[in-house]
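Re: that chain you flagged

S.,

Sorry for the slow reply, it's been a week of failed gels. I finally had a moment to sit down with the sequence you sent. For the record, here it is as I used it:
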Amino acid sequence: MKLEALPYLCCPECRGDLTLADDTTRDGEVTKGSLRCAACDRAWPVVEGVPDFVGDGGTEDVVQTTSGFARNWNAYNEIIMSQ
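Prediction finished late last night. Pasting the structure tokens below so you have them in one place:
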């Protein structure tokens, strides 16, 4: 997740502002951490550079889906625009 994206993200529950906590950055990107809502105090993890807004992450399917998405996002994150 790029740090520049943080002002554009909001809490999916209450639309409050999010702050980054316990972050690990590499080359200007957040690779690990959590996003915490200032209004409702809910938190969502950042897994392999991807914010996980899917839910609580308590089921194996959610973790597997999030990990798969993060892996593909990191592998294919460059979009080539042709005009």
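What I noticed first: The radius of gyration is 13 Å.

Talk soon,
D.
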